[in-house]
Amino acid sequence: MTHSLIYRLIIMALGIPYLAHAEELTPQPIQQCYRAVEMPPKLSQLSAKDNRLQILSDRVRMLKDQTTVFDGNIEVIYRNTMLNATNAEVNQKNQTLLASGGIQYYSPGLKVSSSHFTALLKEDKAILGEADYQLVSQSGRGFAQEMSADKQQINLIQASFTTCPANDNSWALHANKININADDGWGEAWHSVIKIQDVPVFYLPYMTFPVSDKRKSGLLFPKIGSSQKLGLDFETPYYLNLAENYDATISPRFMSKRGAQLNTEFRYLTENHNGRLQLEILPDDNDKPADFGSRYLTHFSHSGELSERWRTSVDFTDVSDDAYLSEIGSGYNNQSDTQLYRQASLSYFGDYLNSEIRLQGFEILGNYLQSYAALPQINLDSAAPTDLAAGFEFHWHSQYAHFRNDSALIDSADRLHLEPSIIWPLITPALELVAETSLLHTRYQQNSSQDNLLLQKEISRTVPKVQLNAKLNMERELSWDNSGSLQTLEPQIQYLYIPYRDQSMIGLYDTAPLQDDYYGLFRENRYSGLDRIADTNQVTLGWTTRLYDSEDSELFRFSLGQIVFLNDPKPIDHLLPDAKQPADSVLASELLWNWSQGWYLNTALQYDSSNERMVKSNVTLDYIADDKSLIQLNHRYSREVSDYEIAQLGFLGTTPIDDQWKLIASYYRDINKHHMIEANLGLQYESCCWAIRVVAKRQINTNLELALDDLSQPPTFDNGIAVQFVLKGFGEGAGFSVNDMLSNGIFGYRRPYLLNN
């Protein structure tokens, strides 16, 4: 008999009836609106390893043709399944079992009520007629005029399936015939109809679906939306399961204001490599002049291990024009991105040497200066320290880079950097003490296609560095809310000395000022890259205290630090935006406070004590009650980001109206410019078996041709509306939680940009 096979195939086939399957989904918990299925207590005592066929009844009669007739309270037990019936007979000659009258079939995950039951014991095949089935371990029920199963496949005639509770006909899938093959893990259905409130809304003459974690080619659920820039936006992805380790998705997209677009994605995965190739192409944009040409985006990413010591990675994105992302949009980049990162690297990790060859560049979008590309950049480092006498260690780092920028005055440059270091580390659980001295030698060869008497083609810079860093790790136990807690105190002090060197004749190739957050106070240089090394004679003081509860969850963290300059740093040159305030002594602090269940306060402040003014700040207050309620208030400020002052205020939240309705809203405003940045307002309904969400959106249009502080033109906005509809258990996503709404939904939940590196 194949009772356990019936359950296994039904739950896989009808529990996940996708048109196609692109990735495995995490099962969703059963909602409280589903009543638990009553199962016989005896079922939990049965064993799947018991191959005996046991039949119990009130009366037994033996007939001449080797037929045994059972009457009254019949109980058939096979492995971990049970069948109850009023009448049954077993024919030993034909190896058949027939049962009728109030049949109830039970397995660990399935309950079936049927009018008659037939088991062909020799063929290991079972047939149930007029079967009402109910899944036990997850929501799902249905009916089949006839249900039959053997070792290879299961067949359902005139079948239906829904995840709605009993007496709820919100939606159901109906099919004339369903065949499921247990060997290849796929099912076929003929004349399938999706009905909502018993009204047919969608018909497929033939469809396939997975009954295991295997994937198969087919249609995915469409995406529908609208906006002023695009008009009606409709996309219908088609999934291609090319092999076990690579696949593709082809997505025709129609935008009523732009035209037809084709998006394709190819993914591959091997034991040592994985990657993705994306191509989006819009042959003719109806909103552009006829001679504008095709618009496209290409993206390629790859990471892999060539061997135990060799690694490789690629990340490349290209667009046809600067406005592609802001006007058309893409799932691979944000609409507000102003640059596209491109890199390819080959790394080697040896016993004595680590090396990397990297090609790196940025495609700057909009009316901005182009950046330099490093073609190539080669890094060589010591893989392990060389032990010297008295606990001293020797490290070394070197780098060669060739920079190119055809639009710059210095169109190419070669840079060679050597940095040997001697380190004395003392690391214990209570004390960390590291003394380091280094010599930074950098040589440049700068070239220009233009005649420039001020250009110094060859220039060298040699700078010594002395650094001493000490940190204590102290802790104590204390009582917090009548439970055992742990408090830590981590004071830290660093001395850093780097003498002044004139660097005004060196171009800026990969260098920019870094943000002065708390952890940035302890870095060696306030600039990225190697083109500028800031002189300093400073002491950095800082401390952090933390509070943990009895379960080691961090309830409180506060950090405070400041740089004390023993000598005022000298301005390096006029090319960097912070050259006019080199002696800033920034007081930086960070705070995390979870003072009550669901309440979180995060702050980060940088205060210029020399000029008595705030440099940067952000404050975030979150209340996360449960999976249905969330509120966030946030504010961020920066005195200077790309020569522009930022001050923004934001709100985001969702709250239940009742058990089935939720309200969703977000709002972000630019305080300096006195206008909105983005707003979303949504309403969501969710029942036990289906959900719908409608969200109205309004966001500022990105104009890459304007400077950030250009107020000559008022901002323009894009308005749109999006609709998501889910039949639970039938499609991607089984429900609308807060995380789904705000992280993966129509608009994104995120903590505000902290303006940190």
Key phrases:
757 residues, mainly beta, 26-stranded antiparallel barrel, 3 helices, disordered N terminus
Q: What fraction, in percent, of the residue positions are helical? A: under 10%
Kindly name the structural category.
Answer: mainly beta
Q: Which range does the strand content fall in?
A: over 45%
Low-confidence stretches: 1-31, 578-583, 731-736, 738-757
Oligomer state of the chains in this structure = single chain
Large-scale geometry: elongated
Mean pLDDT: 82
Task: Provide a concise account of the structure shown.
By secondary structure, the protein is mainly beta. The protein contains 3 helices and 42 strands.
Task: Outline the secondary-structure elements.
Layout lengths: L2 H13 L37 E4 L2 E4 L4 E12 L2 E11 L4 E12 L2 E11 L4 E11 L5 E9 L3 E10 L8 E11 L4 E11 L2 E12 L7 E2 L3 E5 L3 E5 L2 E6 L2 E10 L3 E11 L3 E10 L12 E11 L4 E10 L4 H4 L11 E11 L3 E12 L8 E10 L3 E2 L5 E12 L7 E16 L3 E17 L10 E15 L1 E7 L2 E16 L37 E13 L5 E14 L18 E11 L2 E10 L4 E12 L5 E9 L7 E11 L4 E10 L4 E12 L3 E11 L16 E11 L10 H6 L14
Antiparallel strand pairs: 1-3, 2-3, 3-4, 4-5, 5-6, 6-7, 7-8, 8-9, 9-10, 10-11, 11-12, 13-16, 14-15, 14-42, 15-17, 16-17, 17-18, 18-19, 19-20, 20-21, 21-22, 22-23, 23-24, 24-26, 25-26, 26-27, 27-28, 28-29, 29-31, 30-31, 31-32, 32-33, 33-34, 34-35, 35-36, 36-37, 37-38, 38-39, 39-40, 40-41, ...
